[in-house]
Protein backbone atom coordinates (compact mmCIF):
# COMPACT_ATOMS: atom_id res chain seq x y z
CA UNK A 1 0.00 0.00 0.00
CA UNK A 2 1.21 3.50 -0.72
CA UNK A 3 0.20 6.98 0.39
CA UNK A 4 -2.97 8.27 -1.29
CA UNK A 5 -4.26 11.85 -1.53
CA UNK A 6 -8.06 12.00 -1.50
CA UNK A 7 -10.41 14.89 -2.19
CA UNK A 8 -13.93 13.94 -1.10
CA UNK A 9 -16.73 15.54 -3.11
CA UNK A 10 -18.46 18.49 -1.49
CA UNK A 11 -22.14 19.11 -2.08
CA UNK A 12 -22.73 22.86 -1.83
CA UNK A 13 -25.86 24.97 -1.64
CA UNK A 14 -26.95 28.29 -0.12
CA UNK A 15 -26.25 27.00 3.39
CA UNK A 16 -22.66 25.93 2.76
CA UNK A 17 -21.53 22.40 1.94
CA UNK A 18 -21.66 18.76 3.04
CA UNK A 19 -19.12 15.98 2.44
CA UNK A 20 -18.59 12.39 3.50
CA UNK A 21 -15.21 12.27 5.21
CA UNK A 22 -15.12 8.48 5.20
CA UNK A 23 -17.06 5.93 3.17
CA UNK A 24 -15.86 2.40 3.87
CA UNK A 25 -16.88 0.85 0.52
CA UNK A 26 -15.53 3.70 -1.64
CA UNK A 27 -12.26 3.74 0.27
CA UNK A 28 -11.98 -0.05 0.07
CA UNK A 29 -12.38 0.29 -3.71
CA UNK A 30 -9.25 2.48 -3.58
CA UNK A 31 -7.44 -0.32 -1.65
CA UNK A 32 -7.84 1.48 1.69
CA UNK A 33 -8.89 -1.42 3.86
CA UNK A 34 -7.96 -0.07 7.28
CA UNK A 35 -10.37 -0.96 10.07
CA UNK A 36 -10.30 2.38 11.87
CA UNK A 37 -10.64 2.10 15.66
CA UNK A 38 -9.77 5.54 17.02
CA UNK A 39 -10.23 9.19 16.00
CA UNK A 40 -7.67 11.80 17.07
CA UNK A 41 -7.99 15.60 17.02
CA UNK A 42 -5.21 18.13 17.60
CA UNK A 43 -5.11 21.90 17.92
CA UNK A 44 -1.94 23.92 17.27
CA UNK A 45 -2.01 27.57 18.30
CA UNK A 46 1.09 28.76 16.42
CA UNK A 47 2.04 28.72 12.76
CA UNK A 48 5.20 26.67 12.28
CA UNK A 49 4.23 23.97 14.77
CA UNK A 50 5.69 20.63 13.70
CA UNK A 51 4.21 17.43 15.12
CA UNK A 52 6.18 14.31 14.28
CA UNK A 53 7.66 12.37 12.56
CA UNK A 54 5.73 9.70 14.50
CA UNK A 55 4.95 6.00 14.15
CA UNK A 56 4.16 2.92 16.25
CA UNK A 57 6.11 -0.35 16.03
CA UNK A 58 4.46 -3.75 15.57
CA UNK A 59 2.18 -5.13 16.72
CA UNK A 60 0.52 -1.69 17.01
CA UNK A 61 1.60 -0.02 13.75
CA UNK A 62 -1.00 2.44 12.49
CA UNK A 63 -2.50 3.46 9.19
CA UNK A 64 -3.88 7.01 9.31
CA UNK A 65 -6.45 9.05 7.40
CA UNK A 66 -5.57 12.71 8.03
CA UNK A 67 -7.53 15.90 7.33
CA UNK A 68 -7.32 19.53 8.39
CA UNK A 69 -10.49 20.92 9.95
CA UNK A 70 -9.31 24.51 10.45
CA UNK A 71 -6.36 26.30 8.89
CA UNK A 72 -3.70 24.78 6.62
CA UNK A 73 -0.98 22.18 7.16
CA UNK A 74 1.94 20.71 5.25
CA UNK A 75 1.37 16.97 5.76
CA UNK A 76 4.27 14.52 5.33
CA UNK A 77 4.55 10.72 5.08
CA UNK A 78 7.98 9.02 5.22
CA UNK A 79 8.54 5.43 4.02
CA UNK A 80 10.06 3.55 6.99
CA UNK A 81 9.97 0.04 5.49
CA UNK A 82 13.66 -1.00 5.36
CA UNK A 83 13.23 -3.38 2.37
CA UNK A 84 11.41 -0.77 0.29
CA UNK A 85 13.31 0.83 -2.61
CA UNK A 86 11.76 4.12 -1.42
CA UNK A 87 12.94 3.70 2.20
CA UNK A 88 13.60 7.14 3.73
CA UNK A 89 11.78 8.98 0.95
CA UNK A 90 8.74 11.11 1.60
CA UNK A 91 5.71 12.71 0.00
CA UNK A 92 3.88 15.81 1.16
CA UNK A 93 0.65 17.66 0.46
CA UNK A 94 -1.07 20.76 1.71
CA UNK A 95 -4.26 19.89 3.54
CA UNK A 96 -6.64 22.66 4.52
CA UNK A 97 -10.17 23.27 5.69
CA UNK A 98 -10.70 25.01 2.36
CA UNK A 99 -9.42 22.29 0.00
CA UNK A 100 -10.94 19.38 1.96
CA UNK A 101 -8.12 17.02 1.01
CA UNK A 102 -7.24 13.95 3.07
CA UNK A 103 -4.03 11.96 3.16
CA UNK A 104 -4.15 8.21 3.72
CA UNK A 105 -0.88 6.99 5.24
CA UNK A 106 -0.46 3.20 5.49
CA UNK A 107 1.25 1.40 8.36
CA UNK A 108 5.01 1.39 7.88
CA UNK A 109 5.20 5.11 7.26
CA UNK A 110 6.14 7.92 9.62
CA UNK A 111 3.76 10.87 9.79
CA UNK A 112 4.31 14.54 10.53
CA UNK A 113 2.74 17.87 9.78
CA UNK A 114 3.62 21.54 10.03
CA UNK A 115 0.98 24.22 10.57
CA UNK A 116 1.07 26.93 7.91
CA UNK A 117 -1.04 29.39 9.88
CA UNK A 118 -2.16 29.85 13.50
CA UNK A 119 -5.05 28.01 15.13
CA UNK A 120 -4.99 24.80 13.08
CA UNK A 121 -7.09 21.78 13.91
CA UNK A 122 -6.24 18.36 12.50
CA UNK A 123 -8.28 15.17 12.78
CA UNK A 124 -7.22 11.70 11.84
CA UNK A 125 -8.48 8.16 12.04
CA UNK A 126 -6.12 5.33 12.98
CA UNK A 127 -6.51 1.57 12.64
CA UNK A 128 -4.71 0.66 15.88
CA UNK A 129 -5.11 2.13 19.34
CA UNK A 130 -2.42 4.36 20.82
CA UNK A 131 0.19 2.13 22.46
CA UNK A 132 2.85 4.30 24.13
CA UNK A 133 5.19 1.35 24.66
CA UNK A 134 5.52 0.99 20.87
CA UNK A 135 5.72 4.65 19.82
CA UNK A 136 8.72 5.95 17.94
CA UNK A 137 9.81 8.83 15.82
CA UNK A 138 12.37 10.37 13.52
CA UNK A 139 13.93 13.78 13.90
CA UNK A 140 11.99 16.37 11.87
CA UNK A 141 15.14 17.89 10.34
CA UNK A 142 17.07 14.68 9.63
CA UNK A 143 19.28 15.59 6.63
CA UNK A 144 18.92 12.04 5.23
CA UNK A 145 15.19 12.65 4.80
CA UNK A 146 15.72 16.04 3.12
CA UNK A 147 12.20 17.28 3.89
CA UNK A 148 11.84 20.81 2.58
CA UNK A 149 9.67 22.18 5.37
CA UNK A 150 8.03 25.43 4.13
CA UNK A 151 9.10 27.46 7.16
CA UNK A 152 10.32 30.44 5.13
CA UNK A 153 7.20 30.41 2.94
CA UNK A 154 5.10 30.66 6.10
CA UNK A 155 7.32 33.44 7.50
CA UNK A 156 8.63 31.21 10.30
CA UNK A 157 12.22 31.46 11.58
CA UNK A 158 12.15 28.44 13.90
CA UNK A 159 9.56 25.67 14.24
CA UNK A 160 7.56 25.08 17.40
CA UNK A 161 8.32 21.56 18.68
CA UNK A 162 7.35 19.56 21.72
CA UNK A 163 10.24 18.69 24.05
CA UNK A 164 9.74 15.05 23.09
CA UNK A 165 9.86 15.71 19.33
CA UNK A 166 12.99 17.86 19.71
CA UNK A 167 14.80 14.78 21.07
CA UNK A 168 13.79 12.28 18.38
CA UNK A 169 16.73 10.42 16.77
CA UNK A 170 17.83 10.46 13.14
CA UNK A 171 16.70 7.64 10.86
CA UNK A 172 20.14 5.97 10.96
CA UNK A 173 19.79 5.42 14.73
CA UNK A 174 16.53 3.47 14.45
CA UNK A 175 15.86 -0.25 14.23
CA UNK A 176 12.81 -0.66 12.02
CA UNK A 177 11.01 -3.85 11.08
CA UNK A 178 8.03 -2.66 9.06
CA UNK A 179 7.09 -5.15 6.34
CA UNK A 180 7.47 -4.19 2.70
CA UNK A 181 4.44 -5.24 0.64
CA UNK A 182 6.07 -4.86 -2.78
CA UNK A 183 4.60 -1.41 -3.37
CA UNK A 184 7.10 1.46 -3.08
CA UNK A 185 6.14 5.02 -2.26
CA UNK A 186 4.96 6.83 -5.39
CA UNK A 187 4.49 10.56 -6.00
CA UNK A 188 1.15 11.95 -4.90
CA UNK A 189 -1.36 12.53 -7.68
CA UNK A 190 -3.06 15.90 -7.37
Overview of the structural elements:
The protein has 190 residues and is mainly β. It has one domain (4-8, 32-173): Sandwich (Jelly Rolls). Helix content is 5%, strand content 36%. The protein has 2 helices and 12 strands, in the order E-E-E-H-E-E-E-E-E-E-E-E-E-H. It has helices spanning 24-29, 163-166; strands spanning 4-6, 10-13, 16-19, 38-44, 50-56, 64-70, 72-79, 90-96, 102-105, 109-115, 120-126, 135-137. The strands form 3 sheets. The chain has a 5-stranded antiparallel β-sheet with strand order 1-9-6-11-4, with no helix packed on it. A 5-stranded antiparallel β-sheet has the order 8-7-10-5-12, with no helix packed on it. A hairpin with a 2-residue loop joins strand 2 and strand 3 (16-19). The radius of gyration is 16 Å and the shape is globular. It starts with a strand and ends in a 24-residue tail after the last helix. The model has no long low-confidence stretch (mean pLDDT 94).
